[in-house]
Amino acid sequence: MLMMDLSAIEETTTEAHPLVDSISGVIGLAGTHKGVLAIHLPHRVAIAITSNFLGMDVDAMNSDVEDAVGELANMLGGNVKAILSEKGRDINLSMPTTISGRHYDYQPNKDAERIFIQFRCEPGEFAIELQLEK
Amino acid sequence: MEDEFDIASEIVKGAQDVFSTMLMIELESEDALFNKGCEIQSNLTSMIGLGGGIRGVLAIHCPATVAKAITSGFLGMEVLELDDDVKDAIGEIANMVAGNLKVAYATIAINIELAIPTSIVGESFNMSGAAKSQRIIVPLKMNGEQFWIELMYVVN
Known about the structure:
The complex is a heterodimer.
Chain A: E1 7-12, E2 19-31, E3 35-42, H1 43-54, H2 63-84, E4 91-93, E5 97-107, E6 112-121, E7 124-133
Antiparallel strand pairs in A: 1-6, 2-3, 2-4, 2-5, 3-7, 6-7
Helix pairs in contact in A: 1-2
Chain B: H1 7-23, E1 28-29, E2 33-34, E3 44-52, E4 54-62, H2 64-75, H3 84-106, E5 112-114, E6 118-128, E7 134-142, E8 145-155
Antiparallel strand pairs in B: 1-7, 2-7, 3-4, 3-5, 3-6, 4-8, 7-8
Helix pairs in contact in B: 1-3, 2-3
């Protein structure tokens, strides 16, 4: 989709730090498994990914970037759904939303199991996290 | 039938029900805003995904003072900082308001499943939904202080 190579650099279950100049794409999973998937991207990485996504230069944060990040969350959520449930039929995805800001904390749910994976691609690093109800 | 279903008033009813039973506080509501933005001052937003008959997200946007007041009422002790207790309390409120909305939708034969709540804490951030989604914002007041419940959704 994006023609970018990715490498996973770290997997933890505890990572939590403030997100600075970042955007998060968030999507909920409901049904036999309940959870939330989020992708956290620094603005410059999100802008670079959106440029590849749309095949045109994007040079600032705008609604195209929000839509692209939301769509990424949607696609990742679709993959997780298919892994957790046969053909994904017992899990429904919520609508993807994006959170964007200069400084914010994305908080895990106390009662959820959490996986946090840091990735690296050419424009920089980003993270994907999945929380599932225990 | 769906035309007669007033989502905004169901959200208000659901929120009033949660606040009166859990916190013994009567909420005042103002006119809901449909598909337009408004000035939202949030230091803590808890959101929960909805899937099934509608795909959406319900979010509660609270200034720090309101988030702490709700949590204090919830726990029966004074809360001074936006700590884990506050995130969990507002997340739980979001979960319960969404649960009431699920029950309301069931009366018009629309089945909704809930995801789990997550919270965002910060000084300056904003939230947006999918490009073609419907957006309803309900301004509410608790003891004179404003907070907001927002529903963004698309009908499947």
